[in-house]
Structure formats: C-alpha cells, structure tokens
Amino acid sequence: MRIDILTVVPDLLEGPFSHSILQRAHEKGLAEVHVHNIRDYSTDKHKNVDDYQYGGGAGMVMAIQPIADCIEKLQKERDYDEVIYMTPDGEVYEQSRANQLSLHKNLILLCGHYKGVDERIRERFITMEISIGSYVLSGGELAAAVVADSIIRLIPGVLNNETSALTDSFQDGLLSPPVYTRPAEYKGMKVPEVLLSGNFKKIEDYREQEALKRTRQRRPDLFKGTENQTTK
Questions:
Q1: How far is 66 from 40, CA to CA, in rounded Å?
Q2: What residues contact residue 34 under an 8 Å CB cut-off, 6+ apart?
Q3: Architecture, CATH, for domain 172-226
Q4: What DSSP character marks residue 112?
Q5: Are 151 and 4 in contact (CB under 8 A)?
Q6: Mean of the pLDDT values across residues 52-80?
C-alpha cells in the first residue's frame, strides 16, 4: 500500500512514521508513506499557500492552485483509490472504514489548515471526507497520522501476531474485554480464575461476556446491535 499525505507543515509527520509498527511496515515493504509539502507546488514567489476569503471573514483559506497541481501530478503517476480530505465536517471515522480502506492500494490524504481549503478542491478532487472526532485541531496532520496508522496495522504481515488486529476493540462492534499478564497475583489483586483454568471454551465465553458488559457500561451507543445478548 502507498499513502501520500499532502500538508503545509510536513515536519509534524516525521515522528509517527519512523517508529514501531509503521516503521516495520515500511521495512517489510508492505506499506510506504510519502509526505508532500504543498508549498513546493506554489507559484507564488513567496511560496504562500493561503489567501483571504472572498466575502470577508476571519481566517485564511488554502488556495486552489498548489493543492490542485500536487494532486494532478500524483494522479498522472498512478491511479488512486481515494482522495481523502481530513476535515472536522467529514464522516466520523470508525473501524469499519479503516477495514475498508486497508484493502486499497493507493490513497491520498489532504490535510486541511487555516479555515480549510478552497471549496473547488473538494468539488473537483475529493472522493471522501473524514473527521476523527467532533472537535477542531490546528490542522489535519495529526488526523492523517491517525488514519494512516489505523489502516496500515491491518495489512496482513504488518503485525507480528496476525490475529491481533482482528481481536481489537470495535472489530466485532464491541469494546475489548479486560486483559491480564503475570504475575497472577499482585498486592492482593488476582487474575480471574477462569483465565488460569486452561479451559479455552470457558475463557472465550468469559471474554465475550466481559466485552458485552464493558460495552454496555462504557459505550451504550455501540450496544444497539447486541440487545438480545446477556451478560453474567
């Protein structure tokens, strides 16, 4: 998979892709992330990429020319499955969308900044708009890093344990159950006996019930599809 991220502050994206799982994905040749500085495409002598709003109002707007030139250059080099704009008014991002995007080959993520991009960019190039939550960030860079991470970790071979991603929270519409590791007892706090029993059927039943219980308590909005299931 290849992900191209378009931004006016590329330095914000140096850290997330040079460590841990994302770094391993790159080293294994399973995923590559390319960051493009939109300023490099500006025809303005000062490399400005924003301008005042038509009609007045506070805040600057990202100009159409450098963004359009960058996207068009990339689209001449390869076919892209989606051109995604990171914006607070986009579709709220969920695991199901991450699953779907992880099946693609080439993606462009455009990071918004200032008051956003000239609307003609959205009309002409954007095929999907994503928000990572109902709040506003200074720019779309951190949101783009979140989306890229959530996608890349799903690619087969990226994680050491390939079943790990399939048992994450939200994969089955539920939160994950509580997890424990050694020691079995610490200052009087004990691991549930069922997890030490070696009875895998009972362990799976326990985990399912705990996932249901945790989802009902913490995210009742996710529980709509599980009303007919009971918890112990």
A1: 8
A2: 2, 3, 4, 5
A3: Orthogonal Bundle (1.10)
A4: P
A5: no
A6: 96
Q: What is the mean pLDDT of the chain?
A: 91
Please name the CATH architecture into which domain 2-152 falls.
3-Layer(aba) Sandwich (3.40)
Average pLDDT over residues 51-61: 94
- Report domain extents, the chain: 2-152, 172-226
CA-to-CA dists, residue 192 to 168, 177, 185, 195, 203, angstroms: 21, 12, 10, 6, 10
Q: How many CB atoms lie within 10 A of CB 32?
A: 13
**High-pLDDT (> 90) share of the chain, %:** 78
Rounded-to-integer distance, Cα 148 and Cα 32, Å:
10
Q: Where are the beta strands (DSSP E) in 30-104?
A: 32-37, 50-52, 60-62, 82-92
Q: What is the pTM of this model?
A: 0.87
169 pLDDT higher than 60: no
Place of tokens 């399939």: 166
Residue 162: the pLDDT is: 54
| Residue 20 confidence (pLDDT) above 80 | no
Between the CA of residue 154 and those of 59, 101, 105, 173, what are the distances in Å? 38, 10, 13, 16
- Please report, for residues 5, 28, 58, 63, 182, the alpha-carbon distance to residue 47 in angstroms, rounded to integers and kept in the order given: 19, 36, 22, 11, 56
Q: Does residue 85 register a pLDDT over 90?
A: yes
Q: What percent of the chain has pLDDT over 70?
A: 91
CB 173 within 8 A of CB 222: yes
